[in-house]
UniProtKB/TrEMBL annotation, chains A, B:
Keyword rRNA-binding: no
Family: Belongs to the serine/threonine dehydratase family.
Key words of the record: Lyase, Magnesium, Pyridoxal phosphate
Magnesium among keywords: yes
GO biological process, one term: D-serine biosynthetic process
Domain Tryptophan synthase beta chain-like PALP: 20-306
UniProt name for this protein: Pyridoxal-phosphate dependent enzyme
UniProt-listed PROSITE patterns: DEHYDRATASE_SER_THR
InterPro entries: Ser/Thr_deHydtase_PyrdxlP-BS (IPR000634), TrpB-like_PALP (IPR001926), TrpB-like_PALP_sf (IPR036052)
Short name of one Pfam family: PALP
Amino acid sequence: MSLSLPAFADIQDAAARIAPHAVVTPVVNHAALDALTDAHLYFKCENLQRGGAFKFRGACNAVWSLTDEQAKCGVVTHSSGNHGNALAIAAATRGIAAHVVVPEGAVRAKVEAIERAGAIVHRCAATIAAREAKAADVQQATGAVMVHPYADPRVMAGQGTAVLELWQQSGGLEAIIAPVGGGGLLSGCAIAAHGLASAIRMYGAEPSGAADAAQSLASGTRVDHFVPNTVCDGLRALIGAPNLEALREHRVEVITVSDEETIAAMKLLWQQLKLVVEVSSATVFAAVLKQRERFAGRRVGLVLTGGNVDLDALPW
Amino acid sequence: MSLSLPAFADIQDAAARIAPHAVVTPVVNHAALDALTDAHLYFKCENLQRGGAFKFRGACNAVWSLTDEQAKCGVVTHSSGNHGNALAIAAATRGIAAHVVVPEGAVRAKVEAIERAGAIVHRCAATIAAREAKAADVQQATGAVMVHPYADPRVMAGQGTAVLELWQQSGGLEAIIAPVGGGGLLSGCAIAAHGLASAIRMYGAEPSGAADAAQSLASGTRVDHFVPNTVCDGLRALIGAPNLEALREHRVEVITVSDEETIAAMKLLWQQLKLVVEVSSATVFAAVLKQRERFAGRRVGLVLTGGNVDLDALPW
């Protein structure tokens, strides 16, 4: 076992830790979508999670994993999206400060949501280097604990709790598929799934315009430079080193999908399932539609990761 | 007990009858909405029901209540909306014909959905008289059984099953609120609720521009002529006579809300709960927001009735 990856027991601990704060999100089925794919699909609705995304699980576990001594100066992260918002909400549940470093050019509505959740927003230039430097500055100045969006084992353990619930709610599964960006969710889910049943087949869904995880698995070397080109704004991060290690250990296969396939899947999820999910979330359904033969006849869990969508700017 | 109203046992039978076909829709909570209303809110997500609305419950119960002899010529109704679609889907589950009388001027997307579900669509002029005449013609010509959208006791019993689930899923409630148009849902829910626990307070939510149920209860006489003026297209029907009787028997109070209040509530449900529901569905949340003191501190069930929304024509 790697020091930088959570164990199954850590995920079970995380589930107990976040239970007073997180939503046990529903799992939904749909007869017509089952017929369309010839599979039994169980959609885990993390779009209905607190903050509108699964990210609250990891952030909440990280915040409540801290000792009082560690927690007293708060937490810090760099994120302009769902992780920043989730960390702000999680910190509020413990009454501690959240510092969120936000790059120039971030979507204003998202930054406002982070502020509304009570976080202290720190601005920086729109490069990875600037973000990391600023976060380090804030950490040094405040004593806040860094909570990385995906490479942190506490975050991975928190995200993995989604699969513990999905397994219980569905009555068992043969395959699970989750989107992959930085890989916090997918690595946590893989560890959780194989703690439950070693036979579960684990899949990631990745935009073909940000297929660094697929390439890293195929080449055996982590791609550490990549210019993403995809509408899936939640999946543009490079896969983290520990996350990639978890994908390898758990023999996770990554299926790539085009933005067109993902947008069509997002539309179908709305039309049939009546759920508006983030375009990143729709990659999982796009992957099942694309590789029908892989999933035919199987009980498949799909993690719908978030619902923070601008209804005035739908991608279709 | 009235001959034209279902008993609690009929609702229990309906639950068993529709179980193989209907979705046990999720119930969701939201900490921020609880804080906003100072109540404990349990949202029953019938927008995630088959066909995107609670209507499938009643239609399915009606279809499967028929003997083989009765069922052999199919079913008929007049509806341009969710009931027509629900009856079409329900008939398909039994492999029988569904005839749906649709007035000229009905929304094309809805008519197409009814056709896609396998129903035979019959056109008529856009008056109540024309609809009823056409439905009677079809009934006579085909031998199909009429399934009225709300005044049919089998339909009321089916709609009431939503409350059996909601009660179970929420762990008990002090008040339940559902929208009222024709009153099929509200009457079924009231009978179900008081079969479970006589102390449950039952409320209807009605657009002030279609407040015939509120007026009928206040005046003691059923309003049988009314020109509705509301964006809530699902709630424009006049309350049915047996439905009104059920509301009286069960001391249901009707809260009226303006379209502005309903639209604001619909937007808030999207922003916070991440569910896009029909504007008619949002009346229940608008009513709780409007009459906060009534619901403060209480465990309140809210039936979100449907999710068949045109995302390109949101009302805000």
